[in-house]
Amino acid sequence: MDKKTSSKQKKKPARTTQKPARTTQKPARATQKPARATRVRSRRTTAPRVTARRLLTYGLLLLLLVASLGVAGYMIFFHVPVAAASPDRPRPAVIFEEPDLPAVHPEEPAEVPELVHPPKIAIIIDDMGYHRDIDRDLLHLDLNLSFSFLPHAPHTRELENVAYRLGRTVLLHLPLEARSSDYDPGPGVLLLSQPATERRQLFDDNLRQVPHAVGVNNHMGSRYSADESAMSELAELLARRQLFFVDSMTTAASQGYAAARKLGVPAAKRDVFLDNRQEREAICRQIELLVIIGRWQGSGVGIGHPYPETLAALATCGRELLDQVELVGIEQLVDGAL
Question: What is the pLDDT at residue 115?
Fold first, then answer.
């Protein structure tokens, strides 16, 4: 009996030690419940913040969409109709002319004298050689036009030969440095920063590309032509090769005409740009102005470009207006010609 009771007494402490272990687990479970509650609460509190961000993002996207539609609407209503009016307008590889070209005669003369003989008018078509079809159409107009070819244009060799065979006056359209590097006169351009030897080589190479040229006029050149020293150097090159010079007057400060005449080089100045505004009616008005100036001073020099609108104007209103004058090659209007 003593042994049994002693064994039972020994087992009792083991039972009592297990009960506290069970009780220690319950508080652990209790501590987990508040954690879940806090997570739920945190989700509920952050949800409005996410929604606000989304609303802000959607608002910004909506503003960008409205702004894009506004820009697109402006382009459609203000720009596309102008381009659509002349879908075949040439897109030149180089800019044809610098913007804001000066007008030698901004207004029509108040009084036009009566002439015994009709005035002599010359019209030069610049920038020939880039657009084969329209260049050919201009060459085959039944008008005594003069044509100035860019030296490195893709169709210059072919078309300047056509002009020569048709008996048209052929000029080299010499690229000269513009007042801004934003306006690229194209290959073969003469720059003030080049050494004189390099400029002479460029001039000779440009001239070889237009073998039938009897004269030169400048392509762009608002910076270059305003430099007296550079234009005197160019006039010497013209004198040696017995070429005349037509100052396109891309700047009112051009020294081209004065430098040429000082060295005895036959020279002329441009009076009217025909197609600064590329609209047929506007070009017709410029042709009419050229005729009036011709009657006023006895002669006049106009410059146009190979635009479809210029071709249309010359083929329609130009014929009637130019019937009032004698249309001649530009070589007949240079001062100092032999």
Answer: 59
- Tell which residue, 233, 215, 216, has the closest CA to residue 224: 233
**Burial 204-236, CB ≥16 within 10 A → b, else e:** eebbebbebbbbbbbbbbbbbbbbeebbbbbbe
Half-sphere exposure (CA, 13 Å, Cβ side) for 326? Answer: 13
Which three-class secondary structure state does DSSP give residue 257? helix
Give one word for 266, left, alpha or beta, with left for phi > 0 and alpha for psi -120 to 50.
Answer: beta
For residue 55 the two structure tokens come to 């609303």
Please give the model's pTM, rounded to 2 decimal places: 0.69
- Within 10 Å of residue 65's Cβ, how many Cβ atoms? 10
**Residue 335: DSSP 8-state:** B
Structure tokens at 193: 């920063």
| Distance in angstroms (rounded) separating the CA atoms of residues 104 and 101 | 10
Q: Please name the amino acid found at residue 286.
A: Q
| Ranges under pLDDT 70 in the chain | 1-50, 67-116, 337-338
Give the C-alpha separation, 184 to 175, whole Å. Answer: 9
| Tokens at 25, concatenated | 């687990």
Reported as a single tens digit per residue, the pLDDT across 173-207 is: 999 999 988 889 999 999 999 999 999 999 999 99
Q: Which two tokens stand for residue 57?
A: 């993002």
Q: For residue 302, which of 271, 331, 276 has the smallest C-alpha distance?
A: 271
Q: Which pLDDT does position 218 carry in this prediction?
A: 97
Given a contact cutoff of 8 angstroms between Cβ atoms, the answer to whether 248 and 260 are in contact is no
Q: Per the structure block, which two tokens stand in for 38?
A: 């806090």
At residue 332, the 3 state secondary structure works out as: helix
Nearest to 304 by CA among 294, 316, 290: 290
Residue of 23, 159, 103, 26 lying closest to 290 (CA atoms): 103
